[in-house]
Amino acid sequence: MRHTDYVIAPSILSANFAALGEEVANVIASGADWIHFDVMDNHYVPNLTIGPLVCEAIRPCTIAPIDVHLMVKPVDRIIPDFVKAGANIITFHPEASEHVDRSLSLIRDGGCQAGLVFNPATPLDYMDYVLDKIDVVLLMSVNPGFGGQKFIPGTLVKAKQARAKLDAYERESGRRIRLEIDGGVNATNIAEIARAGVDAFVAGSAVYGAGKNSDPHRYDSIIGALRGELLAVGCP
């Protein structure tokens, strides 16, 4: 299986919200690639987090892509707000949209990359007829709603199935779709996840939980460890 690169995307859900701009800048300076931005509405998931105003506030803090994961229902009302706030990638759960194709088009028409998110028990079939509008497939390896949960091992089987679908599409279309995973990712399992076909990794508590002091380089070691495990798989 071919990989061109790997992406590490720390989730600010686990960051220090009193110093969010600094937290965003520090993880990117330590070698992260994207900023993962978890949006929860206390409706689709049993938690309430942050919205487009926070995305707009952190946008000047980094040139790195902001990867917005919408755990809200319905999604169409809020998508334009995140486009305007500076998101680069917007993903949503197909169960949260009345018209998946329309929601994907709304994201892409706004100039962002679009993607679908699959919970542990959600079948991959939703992607079959909209692959031409998908840039990212995000697999949840925990049930969404809270950070710090343990990785669900069955997600590895699902990752292999998703990668097979995406590889087949790439052979037909010449276009590669990134496969991302979120939940319980850390330095002990990231290599195994990569071998299952994943090439983008959301890590929240594993990254932000590792640095509680004020040293701006406090995330160097954990992001370096994640990158080192990926290098051991054989790809940059």
What does this structure look like?
By secondary structure, the protein is of the alpha/beta class. The chain has a single domain (7-233), classed as TIM Barrel, CATH 3.20.20. The chain is 33% helix and 17% strand. It has eight helices and eight strands. The protein has helices at 20-29, 52-58, 79-85, 100-109, 155-173, 190-195, 205-208, 220-233, and strands spanning 7-10, 35-40, 66-71, 89-92, 113-118, 136-140, 178-182, 200-203. Strands 1-8-7-6-5-4-3-2 form an eight-stranded parallel beta sheet. Helix 2 (52-58) runs parallel beside helix 3 (79-85). The chain starts with 6 loop residues before the first strand and ends with a helix. The model has no long low-confidence stretch (mean pLDDT 93).
| Residue runs with pLDDT of under 50 for 5 or more positions | none
Query: How many beta-strand segments?
Result: 8
- Write down the overall geometry: globular
The name of the CATH architecture is Alpha-Beta Barrel
How many individual helices? 8
Order of strands, main sheet, comes to 1-8-7-6-5-4-3-2
Radius of gyration: 16 Å
Q: What's the number of domains? A: 1
User: What is the name of the CATH class?
Assistant: Alpha Beta
* CATH homology-level superfamily: Aldolase class I
Roughly what fraction of the amino acids lie in strands? 15-25%
Specify the biggest β-sheet. Answer: 8 strands, parallel
CATH topology, by name, is TIM Barrel
Helix content: 25-40%
Cα distance spanning the termini: 14 Å
Average pLDDT confidence is: 93
Order of helices and strands: EHEHEHEHEEHEHEHH
Secondary-structure-derived class: alpha/beta
